[in-house]
Amino acid sequence: MSRSADNGIERTEFSLPEEAKTPSPLSPSPELSAGQVPGDSDVEGSLRPKTLEEFIGQRKVRAQLDLVLGGARARGVSPDHVLLAGPPGLGKTTMAMIIAQELGTSLRMTSGPALERAGDLAAMLSNLMEGDVLFIDEIHRIARPAEEMLYMAMEDFRVDVIVGKGPGATSIPIEIAPFTLVGATTRAGMLTGPLRDRFGFTAQMEFYDVADLTEVVTRTAGILDVDITPEAAREVASRSRGTPRIANRLLRRVRDFADVNTAGEVTLAVAREALVVFDVDDLGLDRLDRGVLDALVRGHGGGPVGVSTLALAVGEEPSTVEEVCEPYLVRAGMIARTPRGRVATARAWRHMGLTAPPEAPGE
Q1: Is 141 annotated as a binding residue?
Q2: pTM value?
Q3: Domain span at residue 225?
């Protein structure tokens, strides 16, 4: 690290290892993945808020849930089943934990892919105590036999277990204690109609704005004992794609950089330098995002281009480009989806340092 003065303005320069300066192959950046990656669960447990008041952002959802839970507590009954829908990393699991905490009951957790047979679900439901909260993550991926059993459990608090096979098979009804199901899904459109209709309350989780994410970063920094300035916290938040999980992950990477280069102090200059090292630009784009834009703009004149062609240009699978890169690029106004293919917007041209042609969509 070195310091220099130019026209009375002090500038700080950080020396990076040679391997950090070498461009890496295009691939999805784990820092900017909204899904859980190895190491997240060890840290997220200590960062999760415990009450609705502590939960940052999602004001409408918090207000609605406060009414639903408050009304149920006043009547002394279990609240309606709750569906939490929205992109990954916005706090659906945390919200399920808060619901159980607010109700003062136990939380049982599982996931849709883990419920392959109806018997798996029946065993879990039969062990619930009255008022318990059952949380099923990625509920749209639950197996059909288990889903059909869930219908009766949600409506009548009863399941029918089939014993035997063929003509001698009998159905044994099993009463289960009244409970509240909290389902989380990143793809609400994949839920079947009968399952979706059995939820009494649906909460749509939205992406965070920079102000709320700055508050998230500041809170996390306090818990992790990171010395960060307000300007640096806002810088990290502005590059986090509107997702708290990404904001927390970027803060941990900035902390690593600061511990090595500045004895732990995170200023605006340190945050920016750290994010350069991890290939996160000022709009939250990583190497793969910029590679897709470069292929679209420089390689194909702005499009229209199919996803398979873009994937071939960056050496990735089409599903990776479509599911990892494209959603944020569309939301950031960089790509427009048309019937003929993907088209670069005027903003994408400017971001790549080029002049947009007159026919480019956007301003």
Answers
A1: no
A2: 0.78
A3: 208-283
